[in-house]
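Reviewer 2 asked us to include a model.

Predict the structure of this chain.
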Amino acid sequence: MKSFAVKEMWKFSQLQLKEMFCYGKMKAFIQLLFLRSFSICVFCALVSGDSLKECLSLIEQLLILLSYYFTFWSLVEDMRNDRGLINKFMLPVTLAEKYVSLFFSTFLIGTVMLLGCAILSNIFMQLAIPLFFTEETDGPVLLFWGGGYDFKQLIVQMVIAFYVALWTLVVMLRKQYSKTQFWLIVILCVLSYVLPVLCMYELGAPKSIIKYTWSIVSVVWSIVAVVMAYKGFRKLEFR
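Predicted model (structure tokens):
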């Protein structure tokens, strides 16, 4: 039964992938990647001053956030508003499978967009580095290849992008909850991040302890957000 559900979710994600990149949309997709990559590179080069590493790190951060976050937003809106070819199919058959497929498709499609943007951004930056920066470099400095963040930091940025997307889904489905319940969750979330850090600073706790505390708080709220989003997601009426 589990293998069948996985196959159904894979079919669902394949259809979403084909709908986004095929059916005569490839030209528009390439234009989107070109404009996104160019505008992000120019913006980061202008605001980063003379620090090449800071510029590359900022580009990587924005590309990860935009690639996954807006893919997630687009898929949710299509599912809510019954738009797009994929909503004419009955796969997967349950909302639980659609919920899981939503995140899987976000990762799959977002990764394709991220790779495309990374290639174009690397080309733009090799042309822009001599114009905007005076730092000496030994050969080409590449995005996602040690020029900005290291691998561990890139993974953290990707996790943050999905964390933001998950809470965005909770906010989009806020009407499925009472106002008191929703705003109580928001206030508790903010306080759980702020109060422990303030207390630790007052006690002179090392930064490593604060990082671990934030990590634990983030994991707890990720679980809460998954549960809240699924409950709201389950109540949506799909035609």
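The two ends are 26 Å apart (CA to CA). The chain has a mean pLDDT of 77. We have added this to the supplementary material.
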